[in-house]
Specification:
The protein is α/β, with parallel strands linked by helices and 384 residues long. The chain is 31% helix and 16% strand. It is built from twelve helices and 15 strands. An eight-stranded parallel β-barrel has the order 3-4-6-11-12-13-14-15, surrounded by four helices. It has a two-stranded antiparallel ribbon with strand order 1-2. A two-stranded parallel sheet has the order 7-10. The longest helix is centred in the middle third of the chain and has 20 residues. The chain is globular.
Length: 384
């Protein structure tokens, strides 16, 4: 998707476009996995409420959903590979659409970030290199296991699973999907040299390590149309134990494979406009760039400043995670200059229930605006 549809502005509350979608403003709700699905990965009524509450985001990107059983990371995360999953997500998209919102779904395979205690299956990965930390399972935190190295057949089958999941997502009412190639999950494991020790066509130099992400993206684009497909990347991230020794070469090689597909967007996690990596990606990417800024303070002033700076640095849309999590009416608060709710970290993940999920209060339109004193919260490394 070329940038010709985007109008350069620092006003993040001005209307925007994403291809065929007219958006009310430039703010995107980033994908936020919160372990509130049913045990089999089906979204339930609580998730319907959660997303409908936040439908005033210009675009909502639904949380990471696994395209197959072995790709599941933690208990109670969502999936999109059965009829039941599809029906559960359809209830979410119908509620969001009824509230005037637009929604994509993130597709994520955990790779080595998984455990047999959760899936009943041995994790798969580019190489048999285990996660260097414990992982949360239904039995609590357990030591990670050595993953099975993926064969060529596994690689082809996984790309096909992503494509099938994308078709299900569109059937469930999503406008499109985001391919997750970030944060130390399977596709990022192929990109990073410490987790990809292969010597075949999927390992070695950067140009070969980007191949799997490119092939998955191509398969998804072929399945539902490139204008319905975004890709998420996190250059230099060390989340989940990945390490990139050649970030400066890796992402230009990846973008060279992706840029001619005419995708809906590229989503850059923890984008820092002051870094050479950001500037190179913005220069190399001909399409829509969604920037997810680094936030240390979660205040009206800090979020406003970060959104403006992101647009000024060439991003076309701005993705926010925790601000939308704690403020279902975030857009209204920013318009009015009202203070933001603090994030309740205790309820972020692994806990379930409405606490810290659907019970964040919205502003009372009939009451005076609260004081503009700042409330500070810190973004953790696993949260957008």
């Amino acid at each position: 998707m070329t940038r010709t549809n985007m109008t350069r502005t620092k006003d993040f509350l001005a209307p925007a476009r994403l291809g065929r979608l007219g958006l009310p403003h430039h703010l995107v709700m980033a994908p936020l996995t919160r372990n509130r699905a049913e045990a089999d990965g089906t979204p339930g009524p609580l998730m319907v409420t959660h997303y409908a509450q936040r439908a005033t985001a210009g675009l909502l990107i639904g949380e990471a959903s696994t395209p197959n059983a072995v790709g599941q990371t933690y208990p109670n995360i969502t999936a999109i590979h059965t009829d039941r999953h599809e029906a559960g997500w359809r209830r979410v998209t119908e509620a969001v659409r009824a509230a005037g919102g637009h929604m994509f779904l993130q597709l994520q395979h955990g790779g080595r970030v998984s455990h047999p205690a959760t899936t009943g299956l041995t994790p798969v990965a580019p190489s048999p290199v285990p996660l260097p930390e414990t992982i949360f399972t239904p039995r609590g935190h357990r030591p990670a296991v050595v993953p099975r190295e993926m064969t060529r057949d596994d690689i082809r089958a996984t790309a096909a699973d992503f494509a099938a999941a994308a078709r299900r997502a569109v059937a469930a009412g999503f406008e499109g999907v985001e391919v997750h190639s970030a944060n130390g999950h399977l596709l990022h494991q192929f990109l990073a040299g410490n987790t990809n020790r292969r010597t075949d066509g999927y390992g070695g130099p950067a140009g070969r390590r980007v191949r799997f992400t490119a092939e998955v993206t191509e398969a998804v684009a072929d399945a539902i149309g490139a204008d319905r497909v975004g890709v998420r990347i996190s250059p230099g991230s060390t989340v989940n134990g990945v390490r990139e020794d050649d970030t400066e070469a890796l992402y230009p090689a990846l973008l060279a494979r992706l840029k001619d597909l005419d995708l809906a967007y590229l989503h850059l996690v923890h984008a820092d406009p002051d870094t050479p990596v950001y500037r190179r990606i913005r220069a190399d990417w001909p399409g829509v760039l969604i920037g997810n800024p680094v936030l240390t303070d979660l205040t009206t002033e800090a979020v406003t400043r970060a959104a403006r700076d992101m647009l000024a640095a060439g991003a076309d849309l701005v993705a926010l995670g925790r601000p939308f999590l704690a403020n279902p009416d975030l857009v209204r608060r920013l318009r009015l200059g009202a203070p933001l709710n603090p994030v309740r970290d205790r309820y972020l993940m692994y806990v379930g229930g409405a606490d810290g999920y659907t019970d964040y209060p919205a502003l009372d339109a009939q009451a005076p605006l609260p004081s503009r004193d700042s409330i500070v919260a810190t973004d953790g490394p696993r949260v957008a």
